[in-house]
User: Which sequence fits this backbone?
């Protein structure tokens, strides 16, 4: 059911939430760009605690804020059917991001989570990273544009060393800087599941490129690495591209 771009607002979201609590057949719901605020976020969150049919929810580009974020976090603690959740551009801060992270550590069904273009900050990034140590189902995580900075980058790097489920990770526009980038490169030497990594526009310098080249000498699973809008040298980019092509061949050979 696609209800995107309809100015549903909080009152409409409350009505939809009430319907979801009783509905047993709807599997996909798109509510993006509907001027839904914290009150509507609360209503949808409450509905997800009761609903046992919905598999995909796109709640992007609303304004549920921390209050709505906490409601979604509470729902993820108990919901056992939702697999794909899109919360991009919702004014979610580090407080409710930590709540979502706590739920993620216990949730056993979600496979895709998009928190891009919020403001979860370093604290939210660290909390999500800690959840990755315990979560065993998430395969796609999008944290682009969240100002997780160096601290968040280091935490994500540590999680990547042990996580065995993530296949796609988007961290572009996060100012992780040289130290965060080199830590992620080092983690790639140990990670055996990640296939796609986006690090565009993260303040990665010329001196950081060799770390990725070295990592890809050992890594055999990564096939896509986005490093645009950084300052990685052309020589490093060429070496990285060759390694990624090798991994694509290995993947095709099974």
Assistant:
């Amino acid at each position: 059911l696609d209800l995107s771009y309809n100015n549903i607002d909080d009152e409409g979201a409350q009505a939809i939430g009430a319907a979801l609590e009783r509905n047993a057949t709807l599997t996909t719901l798109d509510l993006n760009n509907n001027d839904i605020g914290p009150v509507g976020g609360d209503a949808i969150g409450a509905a997800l605690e009761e609903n046992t049919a919905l598999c995909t929810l796109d709640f992007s580009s609303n304004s549920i804020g921390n209050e709505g974020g906490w409601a979604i976090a509470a729902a993820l603690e108990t919901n056992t059917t939702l697999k794909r959740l899109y919360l991009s551009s919702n004014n979610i801060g580090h407080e409710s991001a930590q709540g979502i992270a706590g739920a993620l550590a216990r949730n056993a069904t979600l496979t895709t989570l998009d928190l891009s273009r919020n403001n979860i900050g370093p604290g939210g990034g660290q909390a999500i990273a800690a959840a990755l140590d315990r979560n065993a189902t998430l395969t796609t995580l999008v944290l682009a544009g969240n100002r997780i900075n160096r601290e968040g980058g280091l935490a994500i790097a540590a999680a990547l060393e042990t996580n065995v489920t993530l296949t796609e990770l988007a961290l572009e526009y996060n100012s992780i800087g040289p130290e965060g980038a080199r830590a992620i490169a080092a983690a790639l030497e140990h990670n055996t599941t990640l296939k796609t990594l986006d690090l565009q526009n993260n303040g990665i310098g010329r001196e950081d490129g060799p770390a990725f080249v070295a990592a890809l000498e050992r890594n055999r699973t990564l096939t896509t690495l986005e490093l645009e809008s950084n300052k990685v040298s052309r020589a490093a980019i060429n070496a990285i591209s060759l390694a990624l092509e090798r991994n694509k061949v290995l993947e095709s050979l099974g």
Summary: The mean pLDDT is 97. The beta strands are 28-30, 56-58, 84-86, 112-114, 140-142, 168-170, 196-198, 224-226. The radius of gyration is 19 Å. The chain is about 45% helix and 10% strand.
